[in-house]
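Researcher: Can you fold this with zinc ion in place?
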Amino acid sequence: MLHIKLGLGVVFLFLFGSFSAFATQDSLMIAKIYEHSFYKGEAYENLRYLTKHIGHRIAGSAQVAQAVDWSKGLMGQLPFDKVYLQEVKVPYWDRGAKEEAYILGSNQKLNVLALGGSVATPGEGITAEVIEVELLSDLRKYGDKVRGKIVFVNKPWDESLVETGVAYGLNSAQRSRGPAEAAKLGAVAYLFRSLGSGIDDYPHTGATRYVKGIDSIPAMAISAVGANTLHAALEEAPHLKVFLRQHSAWKGEVLSHNVIGEWKGTDHPEQIITIGGHLDSWDVGEGAHDNGTGTMGTLDALRTLMALGYKPKHTIRLVFYMNEENGVHGASQYGLQSKQNGEQLIAAIESDAGGFAPRGFDIKGGAEAVAWIQRSWKPLFEESYWVSRFLPGSPGVDSGVWGKHYPGALMFNFRPDPHRYFDLHHTAKDVFEAVDKRELQSGVAALASLLYLIDTHYEALPN
Ligand SMILES: [Zn+2]
């Protein structure tokens, strides 16, 4: 049936015919993009290869080098004008053998993961009493008692927030600053309740950092179940001891790469629209939602436009950034290089919030531009495709970093449904099976549609 093949949005347009000719043309193109993505999308199968054949890929690892080569080959199969690697030096942190943690005496095992960047436990491990707080600032009242102890920060996730990224942000400084704060008071290790939604026995890793001049103490995340177990045990026996052992270490600098594909524009080839996401992941699970879906999704968005015979007016550059998770060196390098080369980076789309059903985009741009997008583009998405969030907001982490050199660039941060992302973010649960094909391809269509709109209407946008 024709009306189904064309998509509901087009039917609405024919029925209510109140849109301009441009809007109709845009609606037709977007309907074609969605149809192609659902019928002929390739993001899901590419994601299968990345996750199942290459697997997790922390910056500096052999797996990430394999992911770089494979991605370059994948881009090479498409009609890009140029596919190349951009050199980036990255610090390589290695987890080493599996961590161990248990409550002494009871031998109650606790599931933990070293936090990214952490040092190893000294000698055969650490055995010490525990001081539990919700907030680092609560440590002050313990003063000297912190010396020689394990500091355990046990702040539960705020389950009331639909915007789970905010819940993450509320507590992430305690992960990054915690070890240094605890070490200042003489603590011997830092145990952090995992930054994730839901209660299960999977610890969530993530980056932490030390402060120069303060002792570096081992830092690890404990699962929510483990944190509740330890909390209950401490209520019964406040002087119980916990054993911790981990083997993680920095292994120096490694040469790695951003992977870049360029599709030259016809009218304004010197003006560049960047789209992409980070290729590296944490070293647990398979880096499926974070960020296999972001890289394979943006690649497939470009492939979709190519397959539909679209000719971009501006140069479109696909960038797979290296090392977002523990340094953001890839995005820094991209920004520096672009600035040195005098390039005009005018707009960006980043996908790094998972591959769940698309809900919209956060926009960093002038108020008039955002209002224009809300008025002109949002109606093209919201009724037919259930994509309705077009709000002022922050760019993605990588675009934000290179964007410092390009304050005028219009930036879009892809926003899939946030409910389940932090159930699996940075855990062993972030695997291919956690991604739904239809949701992923729906996201690809939203990305391709937005890319098409930016490229087609950039000159009409108010500054
Ligand atoms: Zn990510």
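Model: Folded with zinc ion in place. The first helix runs from residue 2 to 6.
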